[in-house]
Amino acid sequence: MKKLLPLLLILSACSTTSNVSREIASTKRGVSSAEEDFSWVEQLDFDKKKEEKYNADKDEFDFSSSDESSYALVKESLGSLAPAKLEEALKGNDDPLTVMNIKCYQGKYDEALKIADDQYTKFKNNTSYWNQLGTCYFLKSDYAKAILFYNKSRDLDSKYIPPVNNLGVVYQKQGKYQKALAAFKLASDLNTFAVTPTYNLAQLYLRFGTVGKALPIFQGLQKRSPKDVEVGSALASAYLIKGDYQSAVDIYGKFDKATLSTPSVGLNYAVALKLLNRPIDAQTVLSNVSSPSGPISEYAQKVERFIRN
What we know:
Distance between the termini: 46 Å
Structural class: mainly alpha
Number of strands: 0
Number of helices: 19
CATH class of the domain at 218-309: Mainly Alpha
Shape: globular
């Protein structure tokens, strides 16, 4: 499921401009023959372009040759891939919708939207096309257009899960948590095998302290994707909030150094160790955490004070 065009195409405008230019040029040459006046028109201009309908087999990212092959969330969305991995995924990829999606996650919005514009005729009735376009605008923080195109995708297929889930992501970003919850539930109910909406639903439960609802979901997801770092980290956080510090530490202890240096992971690991009366280990983990930025900075300061005391 690919996560995440309001393109008002200007093809007709461009065509009109081109026609007028040719007409002026023809007049200047003094050409009067109707046949010669329209000699610049090619039959290709009127040939109907073949549309490409939605193909579920192409709606999953293939990382069969890399470590990400066992990461359920990565198969459905590129959001958690590092920049180097995004660039790697782009090489040799000739699927325009996938390329558009990657460009959006790389922040190359003009290039992505140019692809969307060029591919409009081919994919205008393809539900995945509108979903990808919605994601591009979501990443640009243009939530109104994101919602517009996610709904356009749903108009073509109301049972297509990605735009339903993605609407939930937008609503959550806007602070509309009840609407987000409803969207995640609907997406999860539409396909119980879809990992991303189920994961998002559990994360929302966890955000508001309903660990009893979140924990079994994360446990189920980890059984399906035991090497998925995001799932494992979420499960460890749920154990931490529940007060099962040892279970949290057991999960964190399996992560590599690079993962533990991520503030969202390493800070919680340090807290769990401290609560298990392992202050030296907690300080060691904390010292290897990368400098946080943004909203997590305040939490990092609280964790540091807790660990040092």
